[in-house]
Queue: 4 jobs
Job 1
Amino acid sequence: MKVTNDPVGAAIQDFRSGNQAASIVVESNLTDDDEIPVAYLFRTEEEMPELEQLALEQCRGSVLDVGAGAGCHSLVLQERGVEVTALDLSAGAVQAMQEQGIRQVLQQDIFKLSGVRYDTLLLLMNGIGIAGDLEGLERFLEHTKTLLEPGGQILLESSDILYMFEEEDGSVLLDLNAGYYGEVVYNMRYKQHQTGAFKWLFIDPAILQDYATAHGYTFEQLYEGEYGNYLARLALHQA
């Protein structure tokens, strides 16, 4: 029986088999369908946005690349001699990373990961989205304390998507009964594969700072992009 819930992994495998035009369809409750060209998941360091290049420069010690996908960030770090572990839920992605020579690869849900500690947790491509919602963010910030070495850091990318609710006159229209506006529902499709609906969190930096501080982290914004996306460093207060 074929696994039909690994669209990212299936698309990555097809791309590596020669389908250079492969793309993953992304459905959301917020916008029209979008597509991720699989080629983008294999970008080189030179092709990476400035935010990602800065994040890689800021990595220190042992690194856990969370939601590593096709492994482009892990490959750069490994080539630099960094001790990096690439983590992803997708079996197809994990296989592709192993085939590309990434030495330490884990097929695992970060919320179930235990018994290991790292100096840096790296979450790029809006990686903090795995928290799902604000309640999940609290869970994430508590769980990552068990994964960080003393003085460890989380480097994460997210976006403030308030601009998506702006009217033509510049006002913002929000449904105050619908919860936090950055909680989005996605489904990803590729051929016969689809994830099914899952929640993904986009969090504005001011709210992230509030949550980080409440859970014992310092907050530092390292970069702000043109479209509301940013890179932040959360560091555990030294005991």
Note: The two ends are 51 Å apart (CA to CA).
Job 2
Amino acid sequence: MKIATYNVNGIRSRLPNLIEWLERESPDIACLQELKAVDTGFPIGAINDAGYGALWAGQASWNGVAVLAKGVDPVESRRGLPGDEKDTQSRYLEAAAHGVLVGCLYLPNGNPWPGPKFEYKLAWFERFIRHAKGLLDSGHPVVLAGDYNVVPTDEDIYDPKGWRRDALLQPESREAYARLLAQGWTDALRTIHPEERIYTFWDYFRQHWPRNRGLRIDHLLLSPDLAKRLADANVDRWVRDQPKASDHAPVWVELGKPARKRAPAKKTATARKPA
């Protein structure tokens, strides 16, 4: 099974790129972020024509998340992150498909730092950590996929010194991500590529894409049962090289089939010797 996450940075303007990626890479489940479109503007017709069912939570001009599933309609389990009824930003959508529960998230950027946007980022992160713990404790196979807007370590960015004042690298952001992992989640991309400088985002400034000056901020976290099935993970860099591309590239994991449960061994009767 292949599960992917992709910040499309505007689904209407990137629709040709999205459809080409779906047709070429054929993920079983795809989580999308930054739709930047209201619900009625979601291109469900084109998504269906590509062979996918979908759930989405849109928002005008900003945010927006979606879960796509190949050949089936994903079953919604939660819309919006719990813990703050006043938070109306479309940043979290949870659904079941192909035997897996997927949490699709677009964690707040937090810039400029310091300031209220950074405080909102940390508060949202705390709510997410609490919810993630509940998902882990449920025992269901879970993937938390999306744009976390966190660079976990200095090995996940081309130039940590030049970004020290950015919200993505602040100690509080990194510490929250580390606490999330400590619950028992597996960072799939880093597990498969433990030593490689592998990036998922390259901004549009100063030729950062051609020069491979990137950041790793899109992550797929696996619950322990799925971590045992992790077979591969990587970044579809070719998508970032397309005309009018998003500044993110899709990131994916491949999971092997679950291990078959062995039937209990039958007890054989043994003859008793006469006394």
Note: Residues 79 and 93 are 5 Å apart (CA to CA).
Job 3
Amino acid sequence: MTNVLDDNEVSRILVVMAHPDDVDFGAAGTVAGWTDEGIEVTYLMVTDGDAGGFDDGITRTEMAALRRDEQRAAAKAVGVTDVRFLGYPDGRVEATLELRRDIARVIRQVRPDRVLMPSPERNYERIYPSHPDHRAVGSAALDAVYPDARNPYAHPELLTEGLEAWTAREVWLAGGPTPNHTVDVTPHFSRKVAALKSHATQVGHMPDGALEEMLTGWMGANAAAAGLPEGSFAETFQVVDTA
């Protein structure tokens, strides 16, 4: 059985994702539940999503600005107000020491109990979560949790900035091949849809009802696999004890 911290043991959560919309596809229902419980949630987007969208008339600089605004609106739909961006180039993310340091910096600033991130593993059952940027961010973020953020001698410039070492007790991996924890997000399904619809540059081309149909099928299957009642919706994660 997976050992998962009770939410009442958690005060702060940091969500580290590659692109605007990643957290909303993978975990917006879960995030809505956390914020409803009074947990402080911070989003850290490694890129601005400048390589996304479908409109050739929008420059990449304009796209980056649009996607930042879309992510802020999506965050608001699930109760998150602290949204940060690192500005790495979309589609070219690598798990470098610099990225590890930049994520470790935010971990030390936020001091989260739990960190949610993409899985660094490729998922052969569902290829879409395994975008190279996702896997690179997952790898760098996991290394930032352990050992970087907790080691006062790693990235000494962070101590110079006044950021003391911090140990996050738990990691949740999204989109990986071996989930071990299911969250019933049925009460928050409509807020997940609202969050995703905030990303108009990414989903605005979809026919009416197509987004809801896609989510209903995939999240309903998650719920059924976990033995939840018919009509339920669920998000799945691999939870890793990092205390």
Note: The longest strand covers residues 40-47.
Job 4
Amino acid sequence: MRIATYNVNGINGRLPVLLRWLEETQPDAVCLQELKAPQDKFPEDALAEAGYRALWQGQPRWNGVALLTRGGEAVETRRGLPDDPDPAQSRYIEAAVDGVLLGGLYLPNGNPRPGPKFNYKLAWFDRLIDHAATLIAAGVPAVLAGDFNVIPEDRDVYKPERWRDDALFAPEVRNAYRRLLAQGWTDALRTLHPDETIYTFWDYFRNAWGRNAGLRIDHLLVSPALRSRLSGAGVDAHVRGWDKSSDHAPVWIELKPPGRSRR
């Protein structure tokens, strides 16, 4: 089972890129972020023609999250986090997909820091940590996937000294990410590629893509119930180089089929 996350940075404007990538890689489930489209403008028909069912929560101009599935049906379990500090913002959607509980998220950027946007980021992160703890306690096979807007470590950013004051790299944010992992979640990409330089985002400015001046901010976290099934993880970085592509690249994991119990 291949599960991917992709911040499309405007689903209608990037639809040809999204469809091309789906055709090329055929993931089984995809979490999308930054739809930047109201609920009634989501391209459901085009995705259906490509073989994907969709659950989505749109928002005019900003944010927006969706779950796509190929083959199996997604059974929606949640929209928004419990006690979300701003329920009007579309940032979390969750569904059961082929025996896996998949939570797609778009964590707030938080800039400028300090300020109300940074405070909102920390508050939203706290709600995510609380909800993630309930999934761990339930022992369910779960994946949290999306644009976390968190650079976990110095090695996850080109020239980290330039990001010390940014909300993506703030000590409070990195500590929150570590608190989340401490519940038992596995950062799939870093776990399987512990020594590699890995980026998932390259800004449109200053030729960041051409210079490979990137960040790793898109993550897939696997619960303990799925850790033994994790067999692969990667970044489809070449997609960032396509014409009119998002500034993010798709990130994916592969899960082995569940083991059969012995008599």
Note: The mean pLDDT is 97.
